Amino acid sequence: MKLQKGFSLIEMLITLSIIGILAAIAVPSYQNYSARAARSTVEGDLLAAASVLERRKAQNFGYIGTVAGTHFPNRSPSDAPAGEEKYTISLTMWDTGNNVVTNTTTQTVRYELLAVSTTRFTGAQEALKVNELGQRCYAQNANTCTIGGADQQSWP
């Protein structure tokens, strides 16, 4: 009797189908994990930026002169090279008359930090926001959310 060496076609097909099933389960799980990790990072970056703003308020009696990208990173993760960030962070400030401040010399009393995911990272945008009172909102498939609005959800 002659000894067989190698694998039969059926054995190879069974092995490939098992690998395919495992990959079909593992790849979406990894992508979901990666998105959750990036979301946790941007949450920390938003809270760190809010901390910078509060320190500036304690020193200057307002948020005057604070600029995203100068006083705190305007992308997340903060150490990501330009163009490879997963979220962009923007700052909006208001003066005592509830007017949006567009310069760095007007005294400001309110702010909102907004992080919007890049579509190349998530496929669809999501937005996270925090304000000077620590209120937060989150929206999927959107580039903003409204704190206290109908679409307000807590951060996931």
Write a structural description.
The protein starts with 8 loop residues before the first helix and ends in a 16-residue tail after the last strand. The chain has two helices and six strands; from the N terminus they run H-E-E-E-E-H-E-E. 36% of the residues lie in helices and 20% in strands. Strands 1, 2, 3, 4, 5 and 6 form a six-stranded antiparallel β-sheet that branches. Strand 2 and strand 3 (100-101) form a beta hairpin. It has helices at residues 9-60, 119-122; strands at residues 75-76, 87-94, 100-101, 110-117, 126-131, 136-140. The chain has 156 residues and is of the alpha+beta class.
Can you give the helix content as a percent range?
25-40%
What would you call the structural class? alpha+beta
Order of helices and strands: HEEEEHEE
Low-confidence blocks of residues? none
Briefly characterize the structure.
With 156 residues, the chain is of the alpha+beta class. It contains two helices and six strands, in the order H-E-E-E-E-H-E-E.
What is the topology?
Blueprint (H helix, E strand, L loop, with lengths): L8 H52 L14 E2 L10 E8 L5 E2 L8 E8 L1 H4 L3 E6 L4 E5 L16
Antiparallel strand pairs: 1-2, 2-3, 2-4, 4-5, 5-6
